[in-house]
Amino acid sequence: MLNFRHEDNTVIAVLQDYITNEVLMVGNMNREALVKTLTTGYVHFWSLSRKKIWLKGETSKNFQIVEEIRIDCDADAILIKVKPLGPTCHTGNRSCFYRSHYDIVNSKS
């Protein structure tokens, strides 16, 4: 059983490429988003800002097909191994983790 304990009754969901093990993105899932993910085989998230479920790839068609789901030791985060159908990041990058710590250190803002 998952521990939906965060402020919005969500768990952290980490997406990882099933083949390369590259971390692709992090999002939030409530119980309903998790059920939709399990029943459809496509990753759904809970939007904290819009307060609604969204299908990853709904607009871009870069869907994330679920291959495996793992639960962490505290049952408050999940790792979803996926087959990405295109770039995962809304910027067009394969992963949302395309910047290094040097980008932060060298940033003028």
From TrEMBL:
Annotated binding of Zn(2+), by residue: C73, C89, C96
EC number of the protein: 3.5.4.19
Chief location bin: cytoplasm
Signal sequence bounds: none
SUPFAM superfamilies: HisI-like (SSF141734)
Pathway assigned in UniProt: Amino-acid biosynthesis; L-histidine biosynthesis; L-histidine from 5-phospho-alpha-D-ribose 1-diphosphate: step 3/9
Subcellular location: Cytoplasm
Molecular function as annotated in GO: magnesium ion binding; phosphoribosyl-AMP cyclohydrolase activity; phosphoribosyl-ATP diphosphatase activity; zinc ion binding
Free-text remark on how the cofactor is bound: Binds 1 zinc ion per subunit. Binds 1 Mg(2+) ion per subunit.
Superkingdom assignment: Archaea
Pfam families from the UniProt entry: PRA-CH (PF01502)
Reaction catalyzed: 1-(5-phospho-beta-D-ribosyl)-5'-AMP + H2O = 1-(5-phospho-beta-D-ribosyl)-5-[(5-phospho-beta-D-ribosylamino)methylideneamino]imidazole-4-carboxamide
InterPro entries listed in its UniProt record: PRA-CH, PRib_AMP_CycHydrolase_dom, PRib_AMP_CycHydrolase_sf
BP GO terms, sorted: L-histidine biosynthetic process
Binding residues annotated for Mg(2+), in chain numbering: D72, D74, D76
Residue ranges occupied by any Phosphoribosyl-AMP cyclohydrolase domain in the UniProt entry: 25-98
Cofactor requirement: Zn(2+); Mg(2+)
UniProt keywords, alphabetically: Amino-acid biosynthesis, Cytoplasm, Histidine biosynthesis, Hydrolase, Magnesium, Metal-binding, Zinc
GO-annotated cellular components: cytoplasm
Family, per entry: Belongs to the PRA-CH family.
Function: Catalyzes the hydrolysis of the adenine ring of phosphoribosyl-AMP.
Assembly information from the UniProt record: Homodimer.
NCBIfam families named in the record: PRK00051.1
Name under which the protein is recorded: Phosphoribosyl-AMP cyclohydrolase
